[in-house]
Every structure is written in structure tokens, then in C-alpha cells.
Amino acid sequence: MQAARWLRRNLFSSWGNTAITVTLGAIVVFAALPVLDWAFLNATWSGTRRADCSGEGACWVFVSSRLDQFLFGFYPEEERWRVVLAAALNIGAIVLLFVPPMSRRAGMALAGVPLAILAGWVLLHGGVFGLPLVETRQWGGMTLTLVITIGGLFAAFPLGVLLALGRRTSLPAIRAICIVFIEFWRGVPLITVLFMASVMLPLFLPEGASVDKLLRALIGVALFAAAYLAEVIRGGLQAVPRGQYEAAAALGLGYGRTMLHVVLPQALRHVIPGLANTAIALFKDTTLVLVIGLFDFLGIIQAALTDTEWLGLALEGYVFAAAVYWVLCFAMSRASRRVENQGVGGVA
Amino acid sequence: MTETAAVRVSGVHKWFGKLHVLDGIDLSVAEGERVVLCGPSGSGKSTLVRCINGLEAIDRGDIVVGGVALKEDRATLEQIRRSVGMVFQQFNLFPHMTVMENLCLAPIRAGGVSAAEAGEKARNYLERVHIPEQADKYPAQLSGGQQQRVAIARALCMEPRIMLFDEPTSALDPEMIKEVLDVIVELAEEGKTMICVTHEMGLARAMADRVVLLDEGRIVDAAPPEKFFTAPESERTRQFLSRILHHRESDD
Amino acid sequence: MSHGPWRATGLRPVLWQVVAVVAVGAVCVFAVSNTLDNLADRGIASGFGFMSSTAGFGIGTSLIAYDESSTMARAFFVGLLNTLLVSVLGILIATVVGTAVGIARLSSNWLLARIAELYVEVLRNIPLLLQIFFWYFAVLRTLPSPRGSHAIGDIVFLNNRGLYLPGMEVGAWFWALLCVGVLLVGVPACRRKLGTAPVWFLFAALVAAALATAEWTAPVLQGFNFRGGIVLSPEFVALTVALSTYTAAFVAEVVRAGIQAVPRGQVEAARALGLRPGDVMRKVVLPQALRVIVPPLTNQYLNLTKNSSLAAAIAYPDLVSVFAGTALSITGQAVEMIALVMAVYLVISLSIALGMNLYNRAIALRGT
């Protein structure tokens, strides 16, 4: 009886509603069946060559045969364990930031992330500690996507904090500089920033100094993300009640100490949803590096599609890419919502 | 025997998740009767009143309003709501409309009345609540007491047979409670059927035909005011009265 | 504000500011001097003289007359117009679709609400560039050739060369009737809230009459291609569709949040008065929701305009693609060209932000 009542209220409560339910239901069924058919029932899952594909459904052989390239780019096969280790360290460090027992020691947790990033860079690049050198132009696929996302955010965060503080200060010169900086990077498209970093950065440096292509992209991404982060953090700062500043001053704490020990820890809690949104947006924006010749996850799939053996499989490639991005982005946004609700660092 | 009850509530149960907020309510309100519902917070009195005009759905039982059985479909709900007026604790005036527009909106859009007729009715009811001069102001420009009186006028403009009040004075500053209570008492004297949820015992004494006490979702006692306040039969009633009256006396 | 209780007096704050300005200045001087040196070394010219030189390249889609002998300046404008075209069209479609989806998400019909939710959650979590590639490579480029086009009626055709629509030649009568319709009927009707049926009927009749006076040419298949009518290139269609549907997902969330921000008591009071759901939404909820919706909505419009620069990835000739892409490879004057392009976007961003501030001030609730 409960079920009948629920159906009545939610799907068939009036003539109009019933009509909508029936029409939508029909559309869903008619649209979903061919898609399921193509993607699962008639699809070819195993094999190594194009000829293995039946031609009726999706040819997932394309994905399975080139999967390591999609994940690691041109990273030498015997060194791939380094990428996996670096990824595990970084993702582990970030996750630990939010898991309750660890987050009580905010300081320790915060130090963990830069250490993981540094270790990650050393692992990926090599050249020291007996690890053979792997040049950045061999980094590609999901590896490159993660490097740009994590590296870019990491570089952008301190800059963003400084900009946010600078924008709220009463010293006019500093405030003006920060406002101009923030509004500039927020007002231009990321593609122009990447072009600028890729083409103009070498011009800004003295003759002979060359900058690694990936580094140029990272600098552009970091400056861009810093401006957005600055606005998110500024919102968090504004959410901290004025009484906190006053109490700290009354206790004799100076500006710097107050910010570090009293204000920023509280502000950061308000900042989590905006921070997560920026991170997810950045993760999606890494696809743009394709335009300046770097092969991120999407870029390398796109390049694979031009291979003569796999022509005409654009649909399979994009569906696969979309699925991967969707799962990762959706998981990140769900995780951030959970953290938001539970509170961070013991402060709910 | 013809159906003369304005509102008949039979065997009504409602759950909010696991909370059994209404536990077998049977209540019959006659035409022209004034009923005051009171009880400790969480007793379900606001929920009951909101079930009567369909703002909350019931899980078991029946409610019949003015001879029409309350059902979940939109047509029935709208028909019932056109003959039941409701005044909320938080006033809920539309802030982007003037007082006149607040009053005329429903008569024109749901009552099928012409703009001119609605305007006249609005002015009439504004007079009745003693603030005709505020017709062109916006809600934010009025005091709390004035806003609540506008809300009462707005409900009256639909010319409902039954008026529901959900703690009409609980959100008001003490100085403004009286002006609203006076208006409610005047309405009562005109013979409208009224169900009023309130903490103001003075109101109950002034205008109620019956005072009903709810506790933990059940009706615990019902009696005319003289009997309820001076010689209550139920122990629960005595406890309730001693708690609120004691609080009141300690204010002096 | 952040210096509140520590009143910034004395020499220290001045010192900090001087340090900041000097530091920023030093960085700028360093960059500029290096740039001048490097440019000189590579033999690249400086200044904006290139604007009057011949472009020397063609542009696929153009709203104004343009050919290879036109100036660079003209190429710049062609790119700019193309960007604006895609942006405006995208904004219109995204607003309509996004509002519908946002309201649908709050529908009491469970199926409708879930489908709307699916739309939002799927499109928001897939990168825009990927969606553009999908529409361009996986959909539009796989369409049949003109001879096997998908047709609607006999006037609209879709194939791998683009979307063919009937073209219209408009004369004086068209503009006259349109002006009468909009200025004398439409605008006054909105202002004085005369939303009655006869008035809108008159407006619709005038618009229809205006359209009727235009000369319509339908696209006709001749040989291997179509003649007549207007053709929207596959790049344009793919970009616009991707931009609109993607932004619509965000608009839907903004609209939904705005509607939910209206206190529940408002809806209850309206329903308690017996108002129909349509009236509750139109008269009570939406006017209040709009105040909450407008600022983030303009942000989405800005994002769409900036995102239109992704056109470079599928060779749609927008401003970035034409100027910072093709033209730059010819003149080599990266600094001037990229700076110019960025300046255009900055101007657009700041004007929209300004417009939004003015709008906010105009609609603030009176009495508060």
C-alpha cells in the first residue's frame, strides 16, 4: 500500500503528471536500449587488433590494447612503478588530510602534502638516487593530468592565500596590486593563459634560459588557479566573525600570529566546498593543455584516434574518456560533500 | 443526520521518520465553533493544524473539511484551501509586493474575482484590521504586529469558512501581541469557525468555546475554558497549567 | 578590514607598501627588458603596425565581408564577431534550457526530477573540451554527405557539411513591422504588466507579419551540395551545442539554488491561499528567486564567453583561433597579439560585472 501511495503522489498525481511520466518513460526506454546494446551486449571486449572487433557494437579492444599508453603516456615500461608509487603517495596524503584521526594534527597533515608532492616529483623525474632520468616530454596520459592538477593546485594555494589576505588589507598599494592581479587572471580564458605561458614566458627570461614545456604550462595553470583560489579563500576569511580578530588583538597577538593561529584555521573550514570545486574544475581544465602540445589523458586518446589502425572509433574513445572523467569528478564532488558535512580537523 | 461539522478529524496518524507525531487524533469542530489547541512544544499541535489544509500529508485516517474529504490530489487540495484561511507564525507576507498586492493576489488568481472587486474587498478587510493607511507600503516597512494583521486580512480576503492560526503571536515583540490578539477576538465575535494554536491563555479565555490539550501526539483533554482553567479533570492538564501559569506569575 | 584592531599607523605599513611596489616593479622591468632583447634577437617587429598589413589568409565563417586581401584589423573583427555570435547564441540557449532543467529538478514528478538531475550530474562532470570533441568528431563529422542528409520538412537539412537553414532577405517592411511590434506593443506591455492574451496575440501577429514580408530561400540540393539558404558550419554547430548544453547544466543548478533559497513559508502561504502551482511559481517564488539567481547567473554567462575560446581546438574561427592562432603564426608578434586578445576578454568580463552591479542595485528589495 505504501508503494501504491508513493506512486500516486510522485508520478500520477494529476492528468498532466501522468502524461509526463508516460512520455518520459517511453523516451528513456527507447533511448537506453540501443545504447546498452551498443555499449555492452554487442560490444567486443577482448582481442588485440582492430580485426578482432565484430563491427556491430562498441570496439572496446581499442581501449584495452592501448590502456597503458592512456595511463602512462610515453613513460618507459620498466619505470612505471615509479608513477604508481608517486600517485599512491600523493593521493594518500590528500585523503589523510580529511580522515578524522589524522586531521587533528593539522600541522602534521599539512606538511605531509608538500612532502608527498616533492617525493612524487623526484620519483617521476628521476636523475637522482640512482633513478634513471625520464624527461617530462615522456610524461603523458593520466599521469600528466594528475601532475598538472596536483602540481598546479599545490603551487597555487600559497599564492592564493597571500592574494586573499592582500586583497582584504587596508594598505592601498598592496590591495590595488592584488585586485588587479586577481581580476586579470579571472577575466581571461585559460587558453590564452596557456598560450601566454607557452609563447611569451621564454621571452620574459634572459636569453639562453629555456623552460621546460610542462613547467611553462604548470606556471600558467598555477597563476590562473591562484586567482580563483584567492576569491574562494577571501570568502572564507569574511565568514570568520570580527570578534575573533578583536579577541586575538586584545590578547596581544600581532597580525601575523592571529592570521596563522586563529583566523586561517577557521577560515579554511568555510573554504572546503569552494576549494573542492576549484580542484574539480582544474582537473577538467587540464584537457586544455592539448592545445599547446602536451598529451594529457584526453590528448593522448585523441592522438590515438588518428592512428590508421583505429580510425572511426571516435565514439568509443570519447565514451571511455567521458566515463573515466565522470567517475573521478563525481567521486571528488561526493567526497567533498561528505567532508563538508562531517567537519574537518575536529571542528564541525 | 446531516454533516454539520466544519472539520472532522478521525483516527489520524502521522510519522516524521520514526517520530510518531500524531497518534490517533479524533477531533470534531462544529460550524462557528472556536477551538484553541495548546500543549507543550513537540506535542503535534502545529502539525495537526497544517494537516487540516493539506500542507502536511497524513499517513493514516481521514480528514473531512466542510463536507469535502481531504485527498492527495491537487484539485481537492485547492478546493479545500479556498475555503480555509491560514495565518502563520512567521507571517509569510510576500516581500516583493505591496500590502494591496499581497491581499489581491489570491482572490484574482484563484478566486476568479475581478481586480476592482478584489481591491474593494482588500480595503474593507484592511479597515477591519485597523490599518487602512498601509495599503501601498511594502511588508519590510511595517512593524511585526502590522505585518501579522496584514496576514490576517490576506487570509480573510478569500472569505474562508474556516480560519486556522498557527501560533500567530509567537514571533512578535511583547508590545505588539495585544493588537493582534484584539483582532483575533473581534473575528471570533463575528462567528467564524476558528482553530487556533497558541500559548496565549488569555486568548483562550477571551474567545474559545473549547480548549484542547495535546501531548505527545494525543488529545489529552478537551473542555470549555472555565472548566479547563479552573477545574481541570486530567492530571496532565494540571501539570501543563501549573508550568505555564507558574512561569507567567514569576514574571510579575 | 583585516587590519582592524591593529590600526595601521606609523612607518611600518608604508614600508611594506614600498617594498611591494618595488618588488612588483622590479619583476616587470626584468621581464620587459628581457622581452625587448629577445625580440630584437629574433628580428621580430614591435608595435601595432601589423594591424594594417594584409592578412593573407582566409576565414571559414564570417559575419562581415572578408577575404585574403583584407587587413589584419579586419581579421581581428571577424574573429571577435564570431566569438560574440557563439557566445550570445550560447547564452540564450543555455538560459532557456538551464531554467527548464532547474525547475524540472524541483518537480513533484519523481521521474522528471531524476532525469533533470541526471542531466546536470552527467554534463557537469565531463570536461567541456571532451564534450566539444564528442559533438564534432563523433556526431557531426559522422553525418551523411549532402546527398543523404537528414531533413526536417524540406527546408532544414543536416549533413556532414553543416546545418542548412532557409535564408531570408529582409526589406524595409520587415524592420518597420518588427519595430512596431516590439516598441509599441511588447515593451509597454511588459512595463505596465498588461500580460493579457489579446495583447500578446497582437504582438505575435505583428512579428508573424514581419516575417511574412521577408523573402525566404530554401536550400536546394544541386549536384553534390546545397545552394541557397544559410549554412551553419559543423564547427559552429558543435561548439554552440556543446557550450549551451554544458553551461545549461550549471545554469540549472543556479536556478535550483535560487528557487530553494526562497523561504519555505512563502510557498506555504501561497498554497494555503489556494493558488495554483503555476501561479505560486510565477507570482511568488520566481520574483524572489531572481534576486538570488542573477549574480551567479552572470558568472555563468562570463564562463561561457571565456569557454568559447575552446573553438581553437576544432578550428572554428573565433577570436583566439584567428588572431592568437593563425595571424600570430604569420606575424610572430606574440606579445602584442596575445595581449590584445586578453584585453578584449577583460573588457567583456568587466563590463558584464559592472552591468550586474547596476542591476543588483536596481532590484534591491524596497524598505530593507
What's this model, at a glance?
The complex is a heterotrimer of chains A (348), B (252) and C (368). By secondary structure, chain A is mainly α. Chain A is built from 14 helices and no strands.
Task: Write a concise keyword list for the protein shown above.
heterotrimer; A: 348 residues; mainly alpha; MetI-like fold; 2 domains; 14 helices; 73% helix; globular; C: alpha+beta; 8 strands; 65% helix
How would you describe this protein?
The complex is a heterotrimer of chains A (348), B (252) and C (368). Chain A is mainly alpha-helical. Chain A folds into 2 domains: 2-41; 61-67 and 134-342, MetI-like (MetI-like fold), CATH 1.10.3720.10. Chain A contains 14 helices and no strands. Mean pLDDT of chain A is 84; it is low at 344-348. Chain B has a single domain (5-251), classed as 3-Layer(aba) Sandwich (Rossmann fold). Helices cover 40% and strands 25% of the residues of chain B. Chain B contains 9 helices and 10 strands. In chain B, the strands form 2 sheets. A 6-stranded mixed β-sheet of chain B has the order 6-7-8-3-9-10, with helices on both faces. Chain B has a 4-stranded antiparallel β-sheet with strand order 2-1-4-5, covered by helices on one side. Chain B starts with a strand and ends with a helix. The mean pLDDT of chain B is 88. With 368 residues, chain C is α+β, with helices and mostly antiparallel strands. In chain C, 65% of the residues lie in helices and 7% in strands. In chain C, the strands form 3 sheets. A 4-stranded antiparallel β-sheet of chain C has the order 1-2-3-8. In chain C, strands 4-5 form a two-stranded antiparallel ribbon. The longest helix of chain C is centred in the first third of the chain and has 34 residues, at 72-105. Chain C is globular. The mean pLDDT of chain C is 84. Classes of the chains: A mainly alpha (348), B alpha/beta (252), C alpha+beta (368).
- Looking across the biggest beta sheet of chain C, what order are the strands in? 1-2-3-8
CATH names the topology of the largest domain in chain A as MetI-like fold
Task: Please identify, by name, the CATH architecture of the largest domain in chain A.
Answer: Orthogonal Bundle
Return the average pLDDT of chain A rounded to an integer.
84
How large is the radius of gyration of chain A?
A: 25 Å
Tell me the CATH architecture of the domain at 82-165 and 227-333 in chain C.
Orthogonal Bundle
Most extensive chain-chain interface: A-C, 68 and 62 residues
Rounded Rg of chain C: 26 Å
Instruction: Assign the CATH topology of the domain at 82-165 and 227-333 in chain C.
Output: MetI-like fold
Give the number of helices of chain C: 11
Could you state the CATH homologous superfamily of the domain at 82-165 and 227-333 in chain C?
MetI-like
Give the helix level of chain C as a range of percent.
55-70%
